Amino acid sequence: MLRVHCTVDDLLRVTVADRPAPLVELGLAFEMLQRRDPHPVFRPWRQRVARTLPRPARPVLQLVSPLGAGPLFLDPPSPDLEEGMDQIFSTPAPQVGTELRRMCAIDRPLTPWVRQLADHDREAWQVLGTAVRAAHSSVIAEAWPRILAGFHAETAWRSRILAQQGLRAALTGLAPSTRWRGTTLEAEFPRDLDLTLSGRGIILRPSLFWADHLLVAPQPDGRLLLIYPALTPLPLRDTSPSGDPLTALVGSTRAQALRLLVQQHTTTDLARELAVSPAAASMQTKILREAGLIVSQRDGKAVWHWCTPLGLDLLAHGGTAARRDGAY
């Protein structure tokens, strides 16, 4: 269980990151790559990346965990790759050692190369620099335009929730099972972790590569970086029509699903209409439901889904909706 104990000043200083950070997304991509859960959206992406990942990039796998953890020096939240690389290589040696010991205590093996990194061996750090650049080139660089579009769509959506429904709704909607107890934010987490903030605030940063529990990273300036899964992960973001802001916001598959659900559909019906598997259709409805855009109701073995007023409002204001069978 994660518990973030906030002061009033922290809650008054909640902000949303304005730009994605390539090295943050890279670390999360490598963490998601190592997961073994049968995620219907990320499983094909994992298989493709695992096949194409160049050998020089593979040392990064020794440093990041599928639990969503990595050494803090490896993913500085800089919006610029070169600036981020400079920050990695300027990390003080004591901090490097502390972070590597922390990762090995979680689930990373203490390999000879990791030992050499901790000892600040020059050749080991050259291998690290090559690995990070190769990983970025293979996983992030080509996808960067989609990452940018998805990030800005997500932060616009989160800001709308914050403006219309308030801070409580904006934060509890970041991930399932997130709740408030007084001024303490609680969420599911792989281990017990209590963080006490000091009034410097919280930064919300969505990730298009992460699809699990909230992630936290205390920053040098005292703020807390709170990373959460974006509504539309990268594998569901494709090139979208420029005249369709709804597709730009939630991705083409989910936009199509939302438009279909102005009329009631079962999960099986929706899978057939979207030409996806029932598991993938169920994942779409789960995310739409958690965002408050649809509701679901079980009837025997079938589960029926349809739009909420918020979902209809998004359709009405999100661009020209495709009409089908007399509906949107």
Automatic annotation (TrEMBL):
Residues 244-317 form the HTH arsR-type domain. PANTHER family: ARSENICAL RESISTANCE OPERON REPRESSOR ARSR-RELATED, HTH-TYPE TRANSCRIPTIONAL REGULATOR KMTR. SMART domains: HTH_ARSR. It comes from the Bacteria. The keyword Cytoplasm does not apply. Coiled coil: none annotated. The lineage of its organism: Bacteria, Bacillati, Actinomycetota, Actinomycetes, Kitasatosporales. It holds the Pfam family HTH_5. This is Regulatory protein. CDD domains: HTH_ARSR. Keywords: DNA-binding, Plasmid, Transcription, Transcription regulation. The keyword Transcription regulation applies.
